[in-house]
Amino acid sequence: MSETEDWTQRFTGLSRLPDHVRNVLLRDGKILRSKKGDQIFGAGHVPQNLLFLLSGTVRVSQTSEGGREIVLYRVEAGQSCVMTTACMLAHEAYLAEGVAETDVTAIALPKATFDALVSAEPIFRDFILAAYAHRMTGLFKIIEDVAFGRIDMRLAARLLDLAGTSETVSATHQALATELGTAREVVSRQLHEFQRRGWLEQQRGLVRILDRDALQDLANG
User: Which class for 55: exposed (0-12), middle (13-18), buried (19 or more C-beta within 10 A)?
Assistant: First the structure.
């Protein structure tokens, strides 16, 4: 990214802010680059910056006391992290971990600037709270799915989501279990059942989708 580029134009909400607010963001925001696998933040850490992702993907997950991990959401280019937003607004430490799934380039907005803008600029505060509310809706859906959802439906939906427009998903059984917040053995049994039905085939660390329509029908309930 060019040092002179107006990065706020990459974010729908930020691009609509008045010039004097965007000028503060451009003045104080610093470029941050991380490699795939780097920890962006960890449980117990107090955030010092709000990150606006320019490129790459950050996976946000939480681990229980028993060691079971669940993926809460992903932050993609053009988004900020709701977990960071919540912690900065409440002045609390993270309860989850963020890891770069790919190489990441982001803008780091210092907490002091964030606090000043939230306090003095209602339009910036509205932008932050709107993004927060939108992501929280998704988190409540995850809670509902984990508590009440059928694992076969959730697995079918997650396979399609991870595959995107591709027909393959590069993930181990453990990685898929982490996505769903369940045990590896549960995912393994369900994948074998999908394979028995002819919906997919498995290779080491790879799932190849053979019947997208069948998975979609199951995911839709």
Answer: middle
pLDDT tens for 188-214 read 999 999 999 999 999 999 999 999 999
Please name the helix (run of DSSP H) or strand (run of DSSP E) that holds residue 38, with its range, or none: none
Q: pTM score, two decimals?
A: 0.74
Alpha-carbon distance of 2 to 52, in angstroms, equals 16
Three-class SS state of 62: strand
CB atoms within 10 A of CB 77: 16
Residue 130 token pair: 């709107």
Inter-residue contact 152 to 190 (CB < 8 Å): yes
Cα distance between residue 216 and residue 221, in whole Å: 9
Per residue, the 3-state secondary structure of 118-183, as one string, reads HHHCHHHHHHHHHHHHHHHHHHHHHHHHHHHCCHHHHHHHHHHHHHCCCCEECCCHHHHHHHHCCC
Three-state DSSP class for residue 82:
helix
Q: How far is CA 221 from CA 17, 66, 144, 217, in A?
A: 41, 31, 15, 6
Q: Which of 64, 70, 71, 32 is nearest to 48 (CA)?
A: 32
pLDDT surpasses 90 at 1: no
